[in-house]
């Protein structure tokens, strides 16, 4: 497909749906995510769409796009994320201090945690994660400070070093944009740096990765795959892919 036609199609999709992710456009048009990002940047410069974190929004809907974008991400592979969360909660025990990133999969886990009678301290950079557990009086929530990303509802930046140096973390639950047998990757360098900090502080690291992320590689490396203690995925993960990880002594559920 020539670029001009692709740009017109992208513009039409964004205007029709009001808010879309790079992944959605990539899957719909059959082009690499890197190509779609470049196209969105071109359309943004031309004033045809508004570029937002991880996707694009219709110009006259930008003011409403922030929460809608989070909702759109949440709806992607929603059943898989719920299944992963139901597996992950079995690794949480009373009186633990745990960390959750701001991913939509950890948001699903947070909603399950909020329904328990576990006494926990939860450290997170995710506003939606914090909101999900905030009404449970048995949970102490520590929100990591930093610059607020209005699209992902997470804090980011280098303002959190002192806090992380002072807390003990039993288990860190986190997600990534891509994973293979070598590494876990993400496109936001600030998120990557924060996750790397928490990984180094935590006694156990559990990656919550839905099957659509396997085989994908993003911009920055969070950690090596063998730095993760357990990977939890969903039932759609190809058995051959699962066997590759197991053959490298990587525990994957």
TrEMBL record:
Keywords annotated in UniProt: Transcription, Transcription regulation
SUPFAM superfamilies documented for this protein: NagB/RpiA/CoA transferase-like, Winged helix' DNA-binding domain
PROSITE patterns: HTH_DEOR_2 (PS51000)
GO MF term (any one): DNA-binding transcription factor activity
A Pfam family annotated for this UniProt entry: DeoRC
InterPro entries for this protein: Carb_Metab_HTH_regulators, DeoR-like_C, DeoR_HTH, NagB/RpiA_transferase-like, WH_DNA-bd_sf
Keyword Transcription regulation (UniProt): yes
HTH deoR-type domain span: 3-58
Protein known as: Transcriptional regulator
Organism encoding this protein: Anaerococcus hydrogenalis
